[in-house]
Write a structure and sequence with these properties.
single chain, mainly beta, ten-stranded mixed beta sheet, 566 residues
């Protein structure tokens, strides 16, 4: 069968140093899409001098990427009913897993030394697992959205609609989809057969400065087999939001052309590298950061100061438990070992956390997140290693992944204190993801205490460094595109600290979040802290920004795939 062939294609292996377990070609059967061309805004064209729009400025011999002055933007909304982009177990050693989804893409026309191609500069998707795989595996900057799409077989009679809503903002409405005549199948295939040159995370292409000498790009080439192609008349309404400037891309919302297409796609991906122009860390364009990572404000009226911290005025509960060292050791990144057989789980509510990379705008967010930390060492240096983070805000998740290398996934989090955070208040927390119960916590806040807790609010230099893998890109080329280690120092300002009594913890055992395999027994201790958290550089650690060894990285990534992305 076709699905069986794709599964076989995904089981590739090899002994060459840095060999990738990923297939170079993926097939998507039975796709249906609305495809629209639109004029590009003058504001976007004026930003062309800033090459950070398209990945990073390149050296003089390369010339850089510019918007094609004769080009137009290509917007598509596609239903992928069969999308074998994941695996049921380890990549390369298990069958492919389909993640059906809807995907909106905006591809901009670029020119580089006379060579013309496109780049997906904005994308929205309705499945968070597919979102992470596209962002970190293909350089497609997909963000989460709610999307509606015409049912299979729906008539193109003007009644069908498409709606795309993100964080409460109806960014795109398509109405009046009406058949306007036949379109040549070969012309439709040519429309889709473009080179899409995307780029990786801001860490690898932007923030690493002199550490990384080359930019990493992913060259996607599409071969389409179109079975149905119809010209259509449509009406588009595109909404502007300061924190999600989708409308900024287009001169107006009147389509230059529109088509309804159905068929199969075959996408081949390869890694391309381009030398950097400037080894220093440049200023990244705020609009592009917003397009790739940001979203509308969900909680209004928050106090955001000029020196807002990563997580302000946080309510924190924590518990320390014994580890099953045999079960958790395979999840330690290369070079790490356990310092002790205990770990700390810390659930915090940031009030607010602030995304500060949007120029004059600062996006405040109230969100909950669970940190699963172990006490480790790297090159004999004590390191607090976050194995997994679960968070309930997608901007906080993407910002953590893109700019900090934190292993964050989205989840549904409940965190309540009744009646408040005072003495004798009861605490309840519950976390689930895609139907899996991951974490449940109950307890009661006791008397106030003193004495910093390692892994929570201990600022002693030798005990406060964290270890992150920047970033969590897929190993498409284990030699040229590898993540780096980053060892920032955690900084906390504690306002209140209390003991907790009547602690009870329940943990799940699923392969995607095996907390119940990692932690054993009853809680050894626990407490409540009210604090503000932020990060500082620690240049005394010589291993900062050291690249992971290719074979060890790929082996760890393969073992950790389900935990990192699914």
């Amino acid at each position: 069968s076709a699905s069986g062939q794709r599964a076989a294609d995904n089981r590739i292996s090899g002994s060459r140093r840095g060999v990738s377990p990923l297939p170079t070609t993926q097939t998507f059967l039975g796709v249906r899409m609305l495809y629209v061309t639109l004029p590009i805004s003058q504001a976007l064209k004026d930003q062309t001098a800033n090459r950070l729009l398209f990945g990073l400025d390149s050296d003089a011999s390369h010339g850089g990427m510019d918007v094609d002055p004769e080009g137009i933007a290509h917007l598509s909304v596609t239903h992928y009913p069969d999308a074998p982009i994941s695996w049921v177990g380890e990549p390369g050693n298990s069958e492919a897993l389909s993640l059906p989804h809807l995907l909106l893409k905006v591809q901009l026309p670029l020119v580089d030394q006379g060579r013309k191609f496109f780049q997906t500069s904005y994308a929205l998707i309705d499945d968070d697992r597919a979102m992470m795989i596209l962002r970190l595996g293909s350089g497609i900057p997909a963000k989460l959205a709610n999307m509606s799409f015409p049912a299979d077989g729906a008539a193109l009679d003007g009644a069908a609609t498409i709606n795309v809503t993100r964080r409460g903002v109806n960014l795109l409405q398509v109405s009046g989809i009406r058949d306007a005549g036949e379109y040549d199948l070969q012309q439709a295939e040519a429309l889709l057969a473009k080179v899409d040159m995307t780029w990786g995370t801001p860490i690898t292409n932007y923030m690493a400065g002199p550490i990384v000498k080359n930019m990493t790009f992913f060259q996607h080439t599409t071969k389409a087999t179109v079975r149905k192609a119809r010209k259509v008349d449509v009406s588009l309404t595109i909404k502007h939001d300061d924190f999600d400037p989708f409308a900024w891309i287009f001169a107006d919302s009147r389509p230059l052309g529109a088509w309804w297409l159905e068929g199969d796609l075959e996408v081949t991906t390869k890694v391309d590298t381009i030398p950097k122009a400037d080894p220093q860390i440049p200023h990244m364009d705020a609009n592009i950061t917003a397009l790739r990572t940001s979203g509308a404000v969900l909680t209004h009226g928050l106090n955001v100061s000029a020196r807002s911290s990563a997580c302000s005025n946080a309510d924190v509960i924590w518990t320390r438990m014994k580890l099953n060292t045999e079960k958790i050791t395979p999840y330690l990144p290369p070079g790490f070992s356990l310092e002790q057989d205990e770990g700390v789980m810390m659930l915090q509510r940031c009030q607010p956390g602030v995304f500060k990379l949007l120029g004059d705008l600062k996006l405040p967010m109230v969100y909950n997140e669970l940190w699963v930390n172990v006490f480790g060492t790297y090159d004999d240096t004590p390191i607090l290693l976050p194995i997994l983070l679960l968070v309930d805000d997608d901007v906080a998740m993407m910002a953590g992944n893109d700019y900090g290398g934190t292993p964050k996934k989205l989840a549904n989090l409940t965190f309540t204190m009744t009646p408040d955070s005072g003495a004798n208040s009861s605490v309840f927390a519950s976390i689930n993801r895609h139907g899996r119960q991951i974490f449940k916590f109950t307890g009661r806040i006791g008397a106030e205490t003193i004495g910093a807790v390692r892994g929570v609010n201990d600022n002693e230099r030798e005990k406060s460094n964290f270890g992150f893998v920047m970033a969590h890109q897929f190993p498409r080329d284990g030699i040229v595109d590898r993540p780096m280690y980053f060892f920032p120092r955690g900084v906390q300002w504690t306002y209140k600290q209390c003991e907790m009594t009547d602690l009870a913890v329940e943990l799940g055992h699923a392969q995607e979040e095996p907390l119940g395999e990692w932690f054993v027994g009853e809680p050894l201790a626990g407490g409540y802290v009210q604090q503000t958290r932020d990060w500082g550089m620690d240049l005394t650690i010589s291993d900062n920004f050291q690249k992971l060894p290719p074979d060890e990285w790929i082996a760890w990534w393969t073992r950790s795939f389900q935990m990192l992305y699914m």
